[in-house]
Amino acid sequence: MDKVNQKEKYSRLIKEEAKRLGFSECGIAKAGFLEEEADPLEKWLKAGMHGEMGYMANHFDKRLDPTKLVEGAKSVVMLSYNYFPAKDLAQEGNFKVAKYAYGEDYHYVIKRKLKDLVKFINAEIGEVEGRVFVDSAPVMERAWAKKAGLGWIGKHSLLLNRQMGSFFFLAELIIDLDLQEDAPIKDYCGTCTRCIDACPTDAIPEKGIVDGSKCISYLTIELKDQIPQEFQGKMEDWIFGCDICQDVCPWNRFSKPHNTPEFSPHDHLGEMSKNDWQEITDEVFKEIFRKSAVKRTKLEGLKRNISFTQKK
């Protein structure tokens, strides 16, 4: 078999197995330096838009070049995984949690599937060297997903897909296997600015740029200190993460509910009243968020968010 046919065959096998494992889409890009992203990343960091996320300034070279992260890397296999829920639990007049955190922490759920995909590659194609990542390394996932044809980067800086919208996780394999790369697709945002207009903290200063230090997701999850007073009355009841820019995006009318049991919310999560949230105990917190990403804030962090959010 010649090299071209071999690359096509291996790529097809990997995509078929990814689909069988529950991934929504799979695209492939050639590993190398992300030239287009270098200057914007440097400017973003110099402007301090990463806030207190100091790790974003680390490993600058590795962030732009996966061959420095995984020696001998030839391909970046990008995967998306739907998490859109059957029921949106965010209600007016109640505290809100971002949809991605309703169920079990996605890092663990998706990493298990990635490891199964690697086992398949090793068994069906041959031993490969590489690493699997789920938001766990200095990898510019959205840039690679764009290169691999999974979608385009919207004005809110998230990846958008015409079939799915944006409510999906990204994950990747960086491996030393030479595969058939996919072509990027065009940007379909057009003149729409709904995400920019809807952000209550003005965290989207320009197309594709998010000032992380102003983003409600950052303020409620990443920020460990007190939330700055300038955001008082602007949180719109979000206490863990935020979905505003995604909820207003016209492309998300195409989102369809996931069928992953692990991502289903705990029964009590949809029953929590504002009063229940304000009086949440350690016992209730541990029960509802036992395997959830919400554990990242710890109970003290969640209480801080609740207290700050309810002050107008």
UniProtKB/TrEMBL annotation:
- Which species is the source of this protein? Flammeovirga aprica JL-4
- SUPFAM superfamilies from the entry? alpha-helical ferredoxin
| Gene that encodes it | queG
How does the annotation summarize its subunit structure?
Monomer.
Query: How and how many cofactors are bound, per the record note?
Result: Binds 2 [4Fe-4S] clusters per monomer.
Q: Tell me the compartments it is located in.
A: Cytoplasm
Kindly list the cofactors needed.
Answer: cob(II)alamin; [4Fe-4S] cluster
What protein does this entry describe? Epoxyqueuosine reductase
- Tell me which NCBIfam families the record gives: tRNA epoxyqueuosine(34) reductase QueG
Catalysed transformations (reactions): epoxyqueuosine(34) in tRNA + AH2 = queuosine(34) in tRNA + A + H2O
Q: Which residues bind cob(II)alamin?
A: R63, D135, L159, L170, S217, C242, D243
All residue ranges annotated as the 4Fe-4S ferredoxin-type domain in the record: 182-209
Q: Metal-binding: is it a keyword of this entry?
A: yes
Q: Which UniProt keywords apply?
A: 4Fe-4S, Cobalamin, Cobalt, Cytoplasm, Iron, Iron-sulfur, Metal-binding, Oxidoreductase, Queuosine biosynthesis, tRNA processing
Which terms under GO biological process does the entry name?
tRNA queuosine(34) biosynthetic process
Question: Which Pfam family is one of this chain's hits?
Answer: Fer4_16
